[in-house]
Design brief:
By secondary structure, this protein is of the alpha/beta class. The protein has 13 helices and twelve strands. Strands 1, 2, 3, 4, 5, 6, 7, 8, 9, 10, 11 and 12 form a twelve-stranded mixed β-sheet that branches. The longest helix has 21 residues, at about 1-20. It is globular and about 60 Å long. It starts with a helix and ends with a helix.
């Protein structure tokens, strides 16, 4: 009987302990911030690991990344999941996808001060917070390209023996950027330009990583990337072989942004967005994401960044125009490339 009483007392105490633990407020348990982003951001050489470590030091939380192929894939995933999304933050959309991302109804206003943002031409939006920017460019191998194109038209009409790899606009933000580049320069004649450029395109990859890998392996002489890409080779490899071609008819700008979902814990999500435009985050970007910081860093950038192409003309189309026409432009591209 005594043993039975002891067991009963023990079980009652154990049950009370469990009840007390489960009754603890959420703030007393570890919070988790789930961030949807793209694969190169979370790679061991990308900014993700350093961003995670730096934010976790300040937030009393755990950061969990969900990696997807590219910014377009992020938007597709968000649409598919809808109200059931596990994302608290979506990081890796860009200025060309703002209208479509906003129209999902899944993102909410951040309510933070973005006065520190320093992007050419400015950027201010109640939902999206920028964290870096860069101009799209054709990167070429100086050891194999004999005639460097000086404009998009020269690229389109140039030597078909000097090949280019680009990304698919259906799955890749650089690929969409190239679509916008063609439209900005050629307008209604873009399908004809694509038909000509097709002769120079070795292949089309789903995302940036695959295409840049083909380029650095020497399988193709040119790749669609960013004016900032040569900085990686100059700093990390002490190599000047790969350079960006400066185009007289201009370069499209990409502004990468993040936003919080309406299912996020607002305070934690806002804390991350504030952190994102602080020097602690911005210091990480230039030499891991190899883009220009969107807000001040704590120190000057490596001098290699001063040697990069600085486009004299920036090309851009409104997010509304892109959203209204993206499907038709992709259909034009597919038809011209004989991929439909």
């Amino acid at each position: 009987m005594k043993e039975a009483l002891m067991r009963k007392t023990f079980l009652s105490a154990f049950a009370a302990a469990i009840a007390a633990f489960t009754a603890l407020p959420a703030a007393a348990q570890e919070r988790v911030l789930t961030i949807y982003t793209y694969e190169s951001f979370t790679a061991e050489w990308g900014p993700g690991p350093k961003v995670k470590a730096a934010f976790e030091e300040t937030c009393a939380c755990k950061v969990e990344f969900v990696s997807l192929g590219d910014g377009v894939a992020l938007l597709t995933r968000l649409r598919m999941e809808g109200e059931q999304t596990k994302a608290d933050i979506v990081l890796g959309l860009d200025n060309n996808l703002l209208k479509e991302a906003r129209d999902t109804g899944l993102l909410v206003e951040h309510g933070i001060d973005t006065g520190a943002v320093t992007i050419p031409g400015g950027f201010s939006d109640p939902v999206f917070v920028p964290y870096d920017y860069g101009h799209f460019a054709i990167i070429y191998d100086t050891e194999s390209v004999k005639t460097v194109p000086g404009s998009l038209r020269e690229l389109v009409e140039g030597n078909a023996d000097e090949k280019l790899v680009i990304q698919d606009p259906r799955t890749s933000t650089p690929g969409l950027g190239m679509l916008i580049w063609m439209k900005s320069v050629y307008g209604d004649r873009a399908p004809e330009a694509w038909a000509k450029l097709k002769n120079r395109i070795l292949t089309v990859t789903p995302g940036w990583s695959e295409s840049y890998g083909l380029f650095t392996k020497g399988e193709v002489q040119m790749v669609l990337s960013y004016t900032t890409s040569p900085a990686y080779h100059m700093i990390a490899e002490q190599e000047n072989r790969y350079q960006a071609a400066e185009f007289s008819d201009g370069h499209p700008i990409q502004i990468e942004v993040a936003a919080m979902t309406k299912s996020a814990e607002p305070e934690l999500a806002r804390d991350f967005l504030k952190f994102m435009i602080s020097p602690a985050f911005q210091d990480i970007i230039p030499e891991t994401n190899w883009m220009m910081p969107a807000a001040p860093t704590s120190q000057k950038l490596n001098p290699a960044f001063d040697r990069l192409v600085n486009p004299k003309k920036t090309l851009s189309l409104s997010a509304d125009e892109i959203a209204a026409n993206r499907k038709d432009w992709i259909d034009e591209w597919l038809a011209a490339m004989s991929m439909k």
